[in-house]
Amino acid sequence: MQNRKYRYLLKIQFLGFRYSGWQNQPGQRTVEGMLYKTLKFIMPGKKIKILGAGRTDAKVSALDAAFELFLEEEPIGDFEKFIEAFNLNLPPDIKALEVTEVVGEFNIIQHPKFKEYVYLFSYGEKNHPFSAPFMAHIPGPLDIGLMKSACTLFVGTHDFAVYTARAQKNTKTRRTISGCEIKENAILTANFFPKKSYMLTVRGEGFMRYQVRMMMGALIQLGRGELTVADLENSLIDASALRLTYVAPGSGLMLKRLEF
């Protein structure tokens, strides 16, 4: 007789600064690896499988991330006690928020309807070292006004092929951005943050590897005078000949919101 399988959606938060990204890698500390290790500890002897809603890069954090948990034979009996035990044994830079049972044809990879990323950054004088896990520092001056106005170029449906790295042949590079803007940082505060910092907010259904960080990188290059507005316009046309190589540091990026 085939064992019944149980599926659960777990919402979590994590600070990614000391992790080599989401995906499990031999010999590396990863978010997925830490979650799996902790689940095996609190549910000894159980057959466990986990699948993330996406893969974050090294040092990238999340205020609203999710993964699917697959169990065999025995379900989670008490959700509240499960979350309590999970958090008690997770490291302090990962927190479980909630767990819900998954039914029907839910697919954690294909079903996210909306993702919102935030990239925190400052420029000029070097930041306090304690800022490093949360915010990227960009040396030298930036034309923030020009960067703000150029954000609107990304909104809409475009070919973002130049905004990813090592894309597979079947990668869909045509993506839709529903919102993109730079404002003063209003999401995180600390007395060791610089007096003025900024956040790039990008919203869309799905993103390729490095896409948001390379969008941020292009805006930084624009702010430095290394790229022009025309360059950014040309970067979004089909089969663009422009080549972008600057990937903004991972530590400034956070997955702020994930909706299914």
From TrEMBL:
The UniProt record lists the keyword tRNA processing: yes
All copies of domain Pseudouridine synthase I TruA alpha/beta, residue ranges: 150-258
This enzyme's EC code(s): 5.4.99.12
Gene3D superfamilies per record: Pseudouridine synthase I, catalytic domain, C-terminal subdomain, Pseudouridine synthase I, catalytic domain, N-terminal subdomain
GO terms (BP aspect): tRNA pseudouridine synthesis
Residue positions of the active site: D57
Stored Pfam families: PseudoU_synth_1
GO molecular function: RNA binding; tRNA pseudouridine(38-40) synthase activity
Catalytic activity: uridine(38/39/40) in tRNA = pseudouridine(38/39/40) in tRNA
Keyword tRNA processing assigned: yes
Root EC class: isomerase
This protein's UniProt keywords: Isomerase, tRNA processing
Source species, domain of life: Bacteria
Binding-site residues for substrate, renumbered to this chain: Y117
Family annotation (InterPro entries): PsdUridine_synth_cat_dom_sf, PsdUridine_synth_TruA, PsdUridine_synth_TruA_a/b_dom, PsdUridine_synth_TruA_C, TruA/RsuA/RluB/E/F_N
Subunit and partners: Homodimer.
Function comment: Formation of pseudouridine at positions 38, 39 and 40 in the anticodon stem and loop of transfer RNAs.
Entry's family note: Belongs to the tRNA pseudouridine synthase TruA family.
PANTHER family linked to this entry: PSEUDOURIDYLATE SYNTHASE, TRNA PSEUDOURIDINE SYNTHASE-LIKE 1
Protein's recorded name: tRNA pseudouridine synthase A
Origin species: Cerina litoralis
Gene: truA
